[in-house]
Amino acid sequence: MSPAAPIRDEPSRAIYLDCAATTPLDPRVEAELIRYLREDFGNAGSRTHVYGRAARRAVERARDQVAAVVAARRGEVIFTSGATESNNLALLGLEVFGREHGRTHVVSSKIEHHAVLEPLSALEHRGFEVTLIEPEPGGWTDPRKMRDAVRDDTLLVSIMQVNNETGVLQPVGEIADRLKDSEAFFHVDAAQGFGKELESLRSARVDLISVSGHKLCAPKGVGALICRRRNGERPPLLPLLFGGGQELGVRPGTLPVALIVALGKAAELAVEERDERWRGACEMRARILEGLGSLKPRVHGENERVFPYILNLSFPGLDSETVIEAWADLVAVSDGAACTSQSYTCSHVLSAMGLPEERLAGAVRLSWCHLSESPDTAALVDALERRLET
């Protein structure tokens, strides 16, 4: 793991293990953020003075840093407020092109984030046909089923890189290979995996990539949509907002220079330290599973396809609320997707995987990053054993 300040601010606070919801700021990223908030605060659209020109240079450098993660070009990066906006722009921005060319069919999966499922639902209400593929029991989507669902009138195929609840890596590279003879655009929601798993997103067949800064130890409120050129042409997106003409006319508004610079720095560090971080994440996963072994945890998601930064599991005889309450002073974890936890409904992802009711009710998610501390697994086991005895 990279040297950095621990996540906890004081000894009494629980260790933070909910990085799939949001990550802490890397101190090196924070330093860049503060500099461009306090000192180099110019508007990147102001070309008549040194402050504006310095801001523009910083934005273009960040564009290079983000592009480098997926082997894209500077001009293919559009900055947004995060992956949710990027997903909406990718899916809804193609609507007019699809109508004009008689391509009103979209293929995706049942385990996507709601930031993809809800825009797809909006397209469906506007007359598009949406095919959602069932996942395999291990939590991944079969590339053959995805390709078999593609038709001559398919506008878009959309799949996530890493499932935000189970951590299962989706076969993005295999899907990309199977789409080489199709005109359909290929979109990947890379909110969880951008900068962590690199190779699949570097395929030239991936047209659109959604990025979120706050899942990469950058601030909340910044992200990107990477629009890779195919045969020299960008995907024909139309803007969802109007006024200003920034970001190739696709995403208007004054650029948040400090946030963009911070995202660029986080992207650069992620590539430089990728192998070290990956090893550290694998070691963290192994330590936690070994430490909790006496409780016989049931891991949700196929082990051979799992992303080492996320662990979704349940314990026999315990529901998720009991586990989270028992661990409240020890670790901060989630009962699933933080974006929808207020609804208190079982995960649509785990349900689609066909898990039995007791595992749905008991599922908890632990997730970490290169800044995370290891939890005291003996204390975690003791806390749950006390609950099992009552």
Any chance you could write out the topology, listing elements then pairs?
Elements: E1 15-16, H1 27-38, H2 50-69, E2 77-80, H3 83-92, H4 95-100, E3 105-109, H5 114-125, E4 129-133, H6 143-149, E5 154-160, H7 172-178, E6 185-189, E7 208-212, E8 223-227, H8 257-272, H9 274-291, E9 298-299, E10 310-314, H10 320-326, E11 331-332, H11 348-352, H12 357-362, E12 364-367, H13 377-389
Parallel strand pairs: 1-11, 3-4, 3-5, 5-6, 6-7
Antiparallel strand pairs: 2-8, 7-8, 9-10, 10-12
Structure description:
The chain is α/β, with parallel strands linked by helices. It is built from 13 helices and twelve strands. The chain has helices spanning 27-38, 50-69, 83-92, 95-100, 114-125, 143-149, 172-178, 257-272, 274-291, 320-326, 348-352, 357-362, 377-389; strands spanning 15-16, 77-80, 105-109, 129-133, 154-160, 185-189, 208-212, 223-227, 298-299, 310-314, 331-332, 364-367. A seven-stranded mixed β-sheet has the order 2-8-7-6-5-3-4, sandwiched between helices. Strands 9-10-12 form a three-stranded antiparallel β-sheet. Strand 5 (154-160), helix 7 and strand 6 form a beta-alpha-beta unit. Helix 2 runs parallel beside helix 8 (257-272), helix 3 runs parallel beside helix 5 and helix 6 (143-149) packs parallel to helix 7. The longest helix has 20 residues, at 50-69. The chain is globular and about 70 Å long. The two termini are 39 Å apart.
